[in-house]
DNA sequence: CCAATAAATGCACTTCCATTGCACTTTTTA
DNA sequence: TAAAAAGTGCAATGGAAGTGCATTTATTGG
């Protein structure tokens, strides 16, 4: 708990009660979370607060946003030392069509992509959809 | 014009006036189009018709849907012989952050992605964002 | 060609999620 | 301790996808 506070402070984010709780919640989950997930977990808090908390987290490199193609934005904590930069921290995301969960495969960096002459890459998003480990083992 | 009609018939899609026009419109564009783009081009037609036309086209392998991360669904004609199948026709898409246009890079197939044990891939989406050829050459 | 049937189209409405304006509360600063 | 800044809550907005149903248009069989 105390570590979370100092961590947030290091990231230039004031550790309010809500923020610490949200961080804790995300740290305990191994999967990416949607705003609605957090909303259900913290029924006392307003959605706007959660929304803005995630935005603040993102702006300060605490979480990264995930577009897994479902149309619902997901969020996950960034790895230690991650600065969400291209050719460096970009990992792929996996979305399970069975359990509907999305995970960061942080060990799987996105391969270098060759582009035609004149194209400049600034960001890459790679999402694999299929059946996750949990679901395929049933 | 006549070729479009027979093409659509080959794809088991009745070549109505609207459908032929929409196909023609997309064929003349080298970039992916949003529903709103077609809507602006054919102000006489209702959005639902356009929406359902694209859906019909997609179901019959005439167009493929593109999720370029903008939150707005784009559509583009499929290549001849494309059947939108994994490990075969999956190409990458490029979204320009300057001109906001999205293009199919059909020559650039998505590389094979290694997944952890237990994961089964069924679909892959790879979107590169950056500056397109047109915009970088200015 | 005509009636019956099927397909396509148009209009209105709904849903879902992201986002914002503004007032209020809590914390920080001087 | 008063003023300022930051955080929070409520209500409303906006954009885009999707659907139900009535109407129009095309197809088919007699
Ligand atoms: Mn991730
Ligand atoms: Mn494409
Ligand atoms: Zn699963
Ligand atoms: Zn461009």
UniProtKB/TrEMBL annotation, chains A, B:
Organism domain of life: Bacteria
Chain segments annotated as transmembrane: none
InterPro entries with a match to the protein in the record: FUR (IPR002481), WH-like_DNA-bd_sf (IPR036388), WH_DNA-bd_sf (IPR036390)
GO molecular function annotations of the record: DNA-binding transcription factor activity; transcription cis-regulatory region binding; zinc ion binding
Species for this entry: Arenibacter certesii
Cofactor note: Binds 1 zinc ion per subunit.
UniProt keyword annotations, A-Z: Metal-binding, Zinc
Record protein name field: Transcriptional regulator
Protein residues bound to Zn(2+): 96, 99, 132, 135
């Amino acid at each position: 708990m105390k570590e979370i506070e100092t961590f947030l402070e290091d990231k230039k984010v004031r550790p309010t009660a809500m923020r610490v709780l949200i961080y804790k919640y995300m740290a305990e989950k191994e999967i990416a979370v949607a705003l609605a997930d957090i909303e259900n977990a913290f029924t006392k808090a307003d959605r706007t607060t959660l929304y803005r908390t995630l935005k603040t987290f993102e702006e300060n490199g605490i979480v990264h946003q995930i577009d897994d193609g479902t149309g619902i934005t997901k969020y996950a904590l960034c790895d230690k030392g991650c600065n969400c930069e291209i050719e460096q921290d970009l990992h792929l995301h996996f979305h399970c069509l069975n359990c509907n969960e999305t995970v960061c495969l942080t060990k799987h960096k996105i391969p270098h992509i060759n582009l035609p002459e004149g194209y400049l890459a600034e960001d890459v998003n790679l999402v694999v959809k299929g059946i996750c480990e949990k679901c395929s083992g049933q």
